[in-house]
């Protein structure tokens, strides 16, 4: 009996190692979140590998085009599915999730769309830039270089329409939120909070530390899609000077007239 236990323990350790190495996909958890929603959980960590599976299932449901599915909400490692409870049950949707998750895990598209967002790291646009540099022990130029170097992953949109939560911020730039949130932040402002960076799409209150601003509109309710960035996209920040910041909207407006 002891020998069987050792063999089982060793098999369990090999399975866990394979899951961590990406050789075997961890099973999903399917949890009723309300009478009209289902939560599909792929893990409990923030990682590109888990999020890749979230986005694969997200895209699979988008392709499925079932009118009984009312909304899809990707998270770091989960997908919340809102559905019509008068036309679909939790058990029926769970069965669909299992089929789509299995198919999407085997056909993950790793060629994510990469979007470049210009940012002016001017002190007027980034009132917390000096504070971030001081806390990190870096020069302003080094903060800008480090912030604009990675290719970030768009984990999900939230807080306000089009607000992107980006993963991939260099560890030295991880910063706490402001002790007291600002009552108003200009749309387009780029901020840092914890291990993430993001862009305020519209004027709103907020507590992230601001280090710059983009002249590009991040949310347009009249456009399709209404947000410039989508969950699963990859994006990069491109530093621009103040003159370019002022000129880009004028050039865009000129192209429309």
Shape: elongated
Q: CATH class of the largest domain, please?
A: Mainly Beta
- Uncertain runs are 1-9, 14-24
Looking at the overall shape, the CATH architecture of the largest domain is: Beta Barrel
Q: How do the strands line up in the largest sheet?
A: 5-13-6-7-10-9-12
Mean pLDDT across the residues is 85
User: What is the terminal separation in angstroms?
Assistant: 80 Å
Describe the structure concisely.
With 257 residues, this protein is of the alpha+beta class.
Topology:
Elements: H1 2-20, E1 29-34, E2 37-41, H2 48-64, E3 69-74, E4 78-83, H3 90-106, E5 114-120, H4 129-136, H5 140-148, E6 152-157, E7 164-167, E8 182-185, E9 189-193, E10 196-199, E11 204-206, E12 209-213, E13 234-240, H6 242-256
Helix pairs in contact: 2-3
Which features characterize this protein?
alpha+beta; Gyrase A, domain 2; Cyclophilin; 7-stranded mixed sheet; 4-stranded antiparallel sheet; 13 strands; elongated
Describe this entry's structure for a reader.
This protein has 257 residues and is α+β, with helices and mostly antiparallel strands. The chain has two domains: 24-106, 2-Layer Sandwich (Gyrase A, domain 2); 114-256, Beta Barrel (Cyclophilin), CATH 2.40.100. The chain is built from six helices and 13 strands. It has helices spanning 2-20, 48-64, 90-106, 129-136, 140-148, 242-256, and strands at residues 29-34, 37-41, 69-74, 78-83, 114-120, 152-157, 164-167, 182-185, 189-193, 196-199, 204-206, 209-213, 234-240. The strands form three sheets. Strands 5-13-6-7-10-9-12 form a seven-stranded mixed sheet. Strand 6 and strand 7 (164-167) form a beta hairpin. The longest helix has 19 residues, at 2-20. It is elongated.
């Amino acid at each position: 009996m002891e020998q069987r236990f050792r063999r089982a323990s060793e098999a369990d350790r090999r399975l866990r190692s394979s899951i961590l190495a990406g050789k075997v996909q961890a099973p999903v958890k399917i949890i009723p979140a309300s009478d009209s929603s289902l939560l599909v959980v792929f893990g409990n960590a923030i990682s590109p590998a888990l999020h890749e599976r979230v986005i694969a299932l997200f895209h699979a449901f988008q392709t499925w085009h079932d009118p009984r599915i009312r909304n899809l909400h990707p998270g770091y490692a989960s997908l919340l599915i809102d559905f019509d409870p008068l036309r679909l049950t939790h058990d029926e949707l769970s069965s669909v999730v299992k089929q789509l998750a299995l198919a999407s895990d085997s056909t993950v598209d790793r060629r994510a769309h990469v979007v470049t967002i210009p940012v002016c790291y001017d002190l007027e646009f980034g009132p917390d830039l000096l504070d971030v540099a001081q806390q990190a022990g870096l020069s302003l130029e080094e903060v800008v270089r480090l912030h604009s170097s990675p290719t970030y992953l768009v984990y999900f949109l939230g807080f306000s329409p089009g607000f992107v939560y980006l993963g991939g911020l260099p560890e030295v730039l991880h910063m706490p939120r402001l002790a007291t949130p600002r009552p108003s932040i200009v749309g387009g402002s780029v901020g840092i909070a914890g291990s993430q960076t993001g862009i305020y799409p519209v004027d709103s209150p907020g507590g992230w530390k601001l280090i710059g601003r983009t002249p590009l509109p991040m949310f347009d309710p009249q456009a399709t899609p209404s947000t410039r960035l989508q969950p699963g996209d990859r994006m990069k920040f491109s530093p621009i000077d103040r003159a370019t910041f002022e000129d880009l909207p004028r050039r865009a407006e000129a192209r429309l007239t």
